[in-house]
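Dear support,

I submitted the protein below through the web form. The confirmation email said the job was done, but the results page showed an empty box. After a refresh the structure appeared. I'm attaching both so you can tell me whether what I see now is the final result or a partial one.
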Amino acid sequence: MGAYILRRLLLVIPTLLGVMIVNFALTQFVPGGPIEQILAEMEGNGNVFESISGGRGDVGFQADSSSDSGYVGSRGLPKEFIEKLKKEFGLDKPPLERFLMMMWNYIRFDFGESYFRSVSVLGLVAEKLPVSITLGLWTTLLSYLISIPLGIRKAVRDGSSFDSWTSAVLVAAYAIPGFLFAVLLLVVFAGGSYFQWFPLRGLTSDNWETLSWPMKIVDYFWHITLPVVAQSIAGFTFLTLLTKNSFLDEIRKQYVMTARAKGLTERRVLYGHVFRNAMLIVIAGFPSLFVSVFLGGSVIIETIFSLDGLGRLGYEAALQRDYPVIFGTLFFFGLIGLVVGIISDLMYVVVDPRIDFGTRET
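What the results page shows now:
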């Protein structure tokens, strides 16, 4: 097992390097950049996309800034100002030199500062983490707490009317876009047209600091109920059907028939013998599911419920071409995702000690 973990850890380096190379190369061909974003804001366009599509002959950052058809000529800005901006952002150096310098800093976990917020990237991530952890953790837990019992019941009653109508409900829920379900929850339960049972926005109330600890916990869960439910709805179907199919595969095996022949109760057979084998793939996938929700937090859900999380941070950084935030978070989360992949493999061993990755042939 130790050799397997070491191999996986060594694979993290080239994998992460490949991810960074591909994304860095893509930014060299995407129109616009942080310089264009600043100039667009100075002109009152709001963002670089409006400037690029404005039809005034503007060009991308790679264009010669001294050209009459570029930003200097079309906007009447002095060339010295453009060059000063480039030097301030470190964009006056060749792409290869910038990439190597960036990776050297990232190896030392120096992710730099945001171009537009004058805050360190790690500081921004730490500021947004509570929202993303909240959505990721509770969405994952809620999905498991509902999907596993429901999947087991569907497996036991396979082919019954209960199995049929719950499958229809799950498929319908899976087909509903998350943002549409979120709007529906707001309209119905957040004072839209019917009930005002839950708050409209935010992770806590304005007077949260003055509340007692019990009331802070109540207030916290009061605020996260609707966004967590909205983000969890699509995940129920996958986990429930995965649980059902895993149980059906195990129930039909010979050892289950043998256990029943020995006179064991159905409950003892189901939870004493079938459960551990059937839940192997479901439970072992918990870390990966949590990280997928955590890192891929829904921008739309966060926007609808006015939650300032990592999803919105990434979206705004992409709009502003805030390269330190884009690449810093990409490196940081890519590293987390790769490490969690190793943890997911180890979870298989925890759930079923008979599995030994160390015996696999290389």
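Response: this is the final, complete result; the empty box was a page-load delay. The two ends are 13 Å apart (CA to CA).
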